[in-house]
Amino acid sequence: MNIESFFKITYGLYILSSRNKEGKLNGHVSNTVLQVTAKPVKFLVASHKDNLTSDYIKESGVFAVSVIQQDVDLEFMGPWGFKSGKTTDKFTEVVNYRIGKTGAPILMDKAVAFLECNLLETIDVGSHLLFIGEAVDADFIQKDKQPLTYSYYRNVIKGISPEHSPTYIEERVAEEKGDSPGGGHQKYQCTVCGFIYDPAEGDPDGGIPPGTPFEDIPDDWMCPVCGVTKSDFVPL
Ligand SMILES: Cc1cc2nc3c(=O)[nH]c(=O)nc-3n(C[C@H](O)[C@H](O)[C@H](O)COP(=O)(O)O)c2cc1C
Asked: Which residue has its alpha carbon closest to ligand 1 atom 14?
């Protein structure tokens, strides 16, 4: 089976969000959102069983989907796609959101449209849960902006997928880890979020001056996007 061929399957990218009974908010990047019926309008989303968002959807019986705009960067995608609400409050990092009709949060920045659903059915497919919901509201947020596709995220923004994403390909990461490193000018890429460390730029915000080879970065340095350590980087 040629798993690389899966990259020919097209997806959009979304923030799937929900709330728990106490009104706490959470959400994560998702590429698995799809309209499955028209009358009534039903949507399907897939969320990993270990995701906090899955717990919130099960608890509240509602979810919202914000369609991410094309012109975002890895810094935006990092917390939403690589950090769990179990360890970070993602909604405090969002400039602007509002609570929808269902009580689920909707991103008002970086989103072109949204929809929200009441949960009808949950299907266990192993690692992930499929949540099927009936849409109760939907509208544009920034009608004239382009939505982000998975292909644009991979090929232009140079982002990758973490383990909890249905499109994660373990073999590919392993293969990239086998590449041989170059000299002090060698760029390195984070295998978790796709951030590229360029020695010419360093990471001044993280205390690494421009001109620092990757090999000379202290071991406790963390990826500025997703917070993992040097061991999760591979040479480009
Ligand atoms: C491009 C991309 C696509 C993703 N798609 C999904 C998805 O469809 N389903 C899923 O469960 N996780 C997906 N993820 C992973 C989650 O966003 C990630 O595990 C997140 O940290 C879970 O957050 P939570 O525990 O706060 O809910 C994706 C991540 C990225 C970067």
From this structure: 165
Q: How far from each other are the two terminal CA atoms of the chain, in whole angstroms?
A: 26
Compute the Cα dihedral for 223, 229, 232, 236 and give only its sign.
positive
For 175, 184, 200, 202, the CA distances from 221, given in Å and listed in that order, are 24, 17, 17, 12
Computed on alpha carbons and rounded to an integer, the radius of gyration of the chain in Å comes to 19
In the three-class reduction of DSSP (H, G, I as helix; E, B as strand; rest coil), residue 69 is classed as: strand
More confident residue, 120 or 233: 120
pLDDT reported for residue 140: 98
* Dist. CA 1 → ligand 1 center (Å): 25
Mean pLDDT of the chain: 89
Q: How far is the CA of 28 from the centre of ligand 1 (A)?
A: 5
Token pair, residue 119, equals: 């949960």
Residue 26 Cα: closest atom of ligand 1: 26
Write the pLDDT tens digit of every residue in 77-109.
888 998 899 988 899 866 689 999 999 999 999
18 close to ligand 1 (CB < 6 Angstrom): no
Q: Which atom from ligand 1 is nearest to the alpha carbon of 85?
A: 26
